[in-house]
Amino acid sequence: MAPFTQWTAVLAAASLCSARKPTLEERQIPADPTGVRTITSPQGASISFKQPGKQGVCETKEGVDDYAGYISLNPTTNMFFWFFEARENPSEKPLTLWLNGGPGSDSLIGLFQEHGPCNVTEDLKTQWNPYSWNEHSNMLYLSQPVGVGFSYETTRTDKDGRYSLVDADKANTTDAAAIGAWHILQAFLELSPQLDADITNFTFNLWTER
């Protein structure tokens, strides 16, 4: 091997040996959330949430509350939700649950691309939608079944990243997903007086896509 080729090989090997693996923070693994509030039912279900609208995200109309986080039935059933009050007189408006198709199509698609209070712009900011369905109804969006979107059973963090772990066969049919969504909805309705005192009209609408 020519001397120049030998030195090139040595330098390349040294470079590989000295390369530092980025930390989880440098790889932009999400930090643990702060400012999360939790309410719990006597049966053990809980809702952990923040209010993104108060931070200028999505529903930014003054006086309109929103809540996003997890409805948890137990340690391995954690479903992501986003609830928006109706923009006018929420205590008099019905509750509408929106589900995209599937099972396996996240309701956040409907939220951000179809009829939610905001959509996402090219620069990854939210833009207020004056034609949102919460002009006329309180709106609930779910990432369902568990394993879709931000919903999870358990998580694992190791040197390579953070992962959502889920049993892919647990809710792989429409019937199984429907049962799971029903239980989550019961927990939401049970805890809704603690979550938002304006949720007093329980006229219920279900809208979905196939």
Structural notes for this entry:
The chain is built from three helices and eleven strands, in the order αβββββαβββββαβ. It is an alpha+beta fold and 210 residues long. It has a single domain (23-208), classed as Rossmann fold, CATH 3.40.50. Strands 1-2-3-4-8-5-11 form a seven-stranded mixed β-sheet, with helices on both faces. Strands 6-7 form a two-stranded antiparallel sheet. The protein has a two-stranded antiparallel ribbon with strand order 9-10. It is globular and about 60 Å long.
What key attributes describe this structure?
210 residues, alpha+beta, Rossmann fold, 7-stranded mixed sheet, two-stranded antiparallel ribbon
Give the secondary structure arrangement, pairings included.
Layout (H helix, E strand, L loop, with lengths): L2 H16 L18 E4 L5 E5 L15 E9 L2 E8 L10 E5 L7 H9 L2 E3 L5 E3 L9 E5 L11 E5 L2 E5 L8 H22 L8 E5 L2
Explain briefly what this protein structure is.
The protein has 210 residues and is α+β, with helices and mostly antiparallel strands. The chain has three helices and eleven strands; from the N terminus they run H-E-E-E-E-E-H-E-E-E-E-E-H-E. The protein has a single domain (23-208), classed as 3-Layer(aba) Sandwich (Rossmann fold).
> Could you name the ranges where pLDDT drops below 50 across 5 or more consecutive residues?
none
Strand content: 25-35%
- State the share of residues found in helices, binned by percent: 10-25%
Count of individual domains: 1
- Output the CATH homologous superfamily: Alpha/Beta hydrolase fold, catalytic domain
Estimated radius of gyration = 22 Å
Strand order of the largest sheet: 1-2-3-4-8-5-11
CA-based shape? globular
Largest sheet: 7 strands, mixed
How far apart are the termini? 65 Å
Would you tell me the structural class of the helices and strands? alpha+beta
Going by CATH, the architecture would be 3-Layer(aba) Sandwich
The H/E string reads HEEEEEHEEEEEHE
CATH topology annotation: Rossmann fold
Mean of residue pLDDT values: 87
CATH class (first level) name: Alpha Beta
How many β-strand stretches? 11
Note the total helix count: 3
